[in-house]
Amino acid sequence: MKSIRVLLADDHKLIRAGLRLVVDQQPDLSVVGEADDGRQAVELAKSLKPNVVVMDIGMPNLNGIEAARQIGEMDPGAAVVMLSMHSDESYVLRALSAGARAYLLKDSATTDLVQAIHAVAEGKSFFSPAVSKVLLQDYMRKLRRSGAEDSYDLLSPRERGVLQLVAEGKSNKEVASLLNLSVYTVETHRAKIMQKLNLKGVPELILYAVRKGIIS
Amino acid sequence: MEVFSQVRELGPKSEGGWASGKLRLTLLISFGGLLALMVVAGLEALRLARQLHTQEEAIRQTFLAHTQPLLFLSTSIYIYNDRIQEYLMSQEPQADGLTPEEFSRLTAEINSTLRKYPENRQPEERALLESLQQMFTEQQGMLNPVLLWSREERHKQALHFLNEEVLPQRLRIHETAEKIGLWNNQQLVAADREMFASFAILQARQTRLLAIALTAGLVLSLASILYLLRLGEEAQRRYQELARSRGELEALSAQLVDAQETERRSISRELHDEVGQSLGALLVEVGRLAASVPSDNTQIKDHVDKIKSVAETTVQTVRNIALLLRPSMLDDLGLIAALEWQGREVSRRSEMEVEIQSGNGAEKIPDEYSICIYRLVQEALNNAARHSSAKNARVTVEQTANKILVCVFDDGRGFDPQRVRGLGILGMEERVRRLGGMFTIDSKPGGGTTLRAEFPLSPLNQERP
């Protein structure tokens, strides 16, 4: 079985040790390095070429979000699992914008970490159930108070299908072959979804999908 | 900070009242005194002028009263003598007109004129008059027998009598009358001289009074000027003292705000790094323990689950405290994200929906402004959610080339900013002012609230990342 190479980045040794124990217990996962701060994480990612980087959002020198952005620019093959104490939209959206594919709350890191690493290694997204719950609650509250209708109802069944696949991290080509459509048609659907839901870019689309519970 | 603001509001008012009261009194005394002096001097001058005028009038009246009867007398005597001469020289048996009746009429006229002469006679004057009267009586005595002369007698003796008796007597009478006139003139000159003398005395008195008034005025105005200068210096000194102590208070409160932020940051860091991480590690360990417990041993599994749940709650509590002390998102994500988070936090806890709008450059706001703006918005949103029952709030943050502008609007019930000034508002004002910014609150009961903070940016600040 092909082993997934994992790099751990957290400025707290105790946390890193705990995470390492969890990862090392899995036969198909191996920790190839540990970083103390964001800058070291970027350097190690460059030299060790990990498949997955598990990174704390708040780190000295260079924070997790900036580090994720730099790693993404340097090596698109390395997927980032972001660890954070906050379930707030600001963090989730910025982590996604920086290229992270999974977002875990530190509280539930041990429970969800293995699942998250597997998901991002396959090119999928993963969010802690607690994060999805908070995002959905915020979204519902806003809808209720503003009295607006749920824009999800505006989407056609085909568009909903495209939304889910895009949110899961599939490229236009993959979506086209999965749904038996031309790439051009998929692009048209994507543009319409963005317009109907008033979204700007894939990170917001993923966030939307998480809120709606379409992906987790 | 409450106390500081009271000092600020009361200070200048009482200062001004003190200075203006003393100033008013000084001006009243000095200029009132000067005015009084001038009025006194003027009245005195008027009185003296009137007195002089009266004196002059009296002298003129006296002179006229004396000279007029004299003139009349001279004329009467002249006529009298003329008539006598005419009579003596006449060849007619009964001389024209000069009857004993007419003679006695002329005599009576002269006598009455003499009596008309004013009674207030000087001794010298009286002597002259008496001699005049005597001469006239003598002449009468001399003439009385002549009137009884026959034509022949008259013809024979008239010339001789005229030359020897009448003319010399007439000359003497005239001389005496002239003397009286002369004496009167002398009296007039003397009175004039006397008046001039008294005028000179009056003038001197007037000059003296004027000099006194001027000197007093000079002294008074000098004293007032000195006093005013001293008053001004005093006011200036007090103002500087006040400004200095205000500056010190501002510096102190700025230090307090700074110290508070630093302290909060270090406590938050401590909580996050030490307590938070230990608890995090504890959670990881408990998680591993839970995984290693066989699923059929429910008793131990329950215990482990309980420990886990307590640890999770504790982690959450510690995290909330740390966040309240120092929002880590400010360091992790920047101001706008932190404000968005804060807005959602308020929305979750209250019935108010918060919208954050950020303009260009809002992501690059320097750190010291970020924390100030964050605290400002936090306080404003909490106030709005707690007191105004607003349904919506909007926060806008913009950064232009030379300033940062922050506005917080809410559609709540509003208040009167002139009357309601809590510690929260004062705190916001203090924070903004510390960075050289301007803080305004626009609100009225029933009309929502708009809070504005404007920070000027120096070029130095803009270059910083």
Record the SSE blueprint:
The complex is a heterodimer of chains A (about 220) and B (about 475).
Chain A: E1 4-9, H1 13-24, E2 29-35, H2 38-48, E3 52-56, H3 64-74, E4 79-84, H4 89-97, E5 100-105, H5 109-121, E6 126-127, H6 129-146, H7 157-167, H8 172-179, H9 183-197, H10 201-211
Parallel strand pairs in A: 1-2, 1-3, 3-4, 4-5, 5-6
Helix pairs in contact in A: 1-5, 2-3, 4-10, 7-9, 7-10, 8-9
Chain B: H1 2-89, H2 100-116, H3 123-143, H4 151-292, H5 298-325, H6 328-332, H7 335-349, E1 353-358, H8 367-387, E2 392-399, E3 403-410, H9 423-434, E4 438-443, E5 449-456, H10 459-463
Parallel strand pairs in B: 1-2
Antiparallel strand pairs in B: 2-3, 3-5, 4-5
Helix pairs in contact in B: 1-2, 1-4, 3-4, 4-5, 7-8, 8-9
Structure report:
The complex is a heterodimer of chains A (216) and B (465). With 216 residues, chain A is an alpha/beta fold. Chain A is built from ten helices and six strands. A six-stranded parallel β-sheet of chain A has the order 2-1-3-4-5-6, with helices on both faces. Chain B is of the alpha+beta class. Helix content of chain B is 76%, strand content 8%. Chain B has ten helices and five strands; from the N terminus they run αααααααβαββαββα. Chain B starts with a helix and ends with a helix. The chains are: A alpha/beta (216), B alpha+beta (465). The interface between A and B is medium-sized, with 31 and 33 residues.
